[in-house]
Design brief:
6 helices; Methane Monooxygenase Hydroxylase, Chain G, domain 1
Length: 205
């Protein structure tokens, strides 16, 4: 069930990534259409989360095992929630107001988020049969988050500050900052979930 849940989370992030691709191409109508897919996928992930929690409350588990599974599912679910928020906010920005370089940075940021989420899914799928490999994959998720963090400092911040000075639109700047916060949270939560999965993998050895 946790695998099914994470698969839906990754699907949500995939739709989010696609929305940033069409945004980069100035296709605002398609952003709204993809948001509907993001919304539906995030809702399905939320329903799976509730079923998992119901199963955990109905069955006998060691308290530590239950706690780790709850943390893993809740953290993974927040990945989908932030992907949904990042796409939802994008609907209120006309692509033409954002310079091409910044649109491409947004596209790349979303693509890197998907890579991190996909790697996390691989780790979760591997965990039952090969905890050691799941552990190795969890470190790859951490490496991906660090890559995203470096990308943010080296590529995003300089271009973002230049754009802020040129556009002089406080509302638009604020909304864009919030979008980047959501995109960053997707990566951070992937790392948080990988930390929890690492604990499970170690205890399962």
């Amino acid at each position: 069930m946790c695998q099914q849940h994470m698969e839906e989370v990754v699907r949500t992030v995939q739709f989010m990534k696609e929305s940033y691709e069409v945004f980069a191409e100035k296709k605002q109508k398609e952003v709204a259409e993809l948001y509907r897919k993001v919304f539906a996928s995030e809702r399905k992930a939320d329903e799976l989360k509730r079923k998992i929690l119901e199963e955990l409350s109905a069955r006998i588990f060691h308290p530590i095992d239950r706690d780790e599974l709850v943390r893993l599912v809740m953290t993974s679910d927040e990945i989908a929630a932030n992907a949904k928020a990042a796409t939802g906010k994008l609907r209120y920005i006309r692509p033409q107001r954002i310079c091409r370089e910044l649109r491409e940075i947004l596209r790349e940021f979303a693509a890197k988020d998907l890579e991190a989420a996909t790697k996390l899914l691989q780790a979760i799928r591997t965990l039952p049969s090969n905890p050691k490999q799941a552990l190795e994959l969890s470190y790859e998720v951490e490496d991906k988050e660090e890559e995203i963090d470096e990308y943010r400092h080296e590529k995003l911040f300089p271009k973002l500050m230049q754009w802020h000075r040129a556009i002089k639109d406080t509302g638009l700047s604020f909304l864009l900052e919030k979008i980047f916060e959501n995109l960053e949270m997707v990566a951070d939560l992937c790392e948080d979930a990988s930390d929890i999965l690492r604990c499970i993998a170690v205890s399962g050895k």
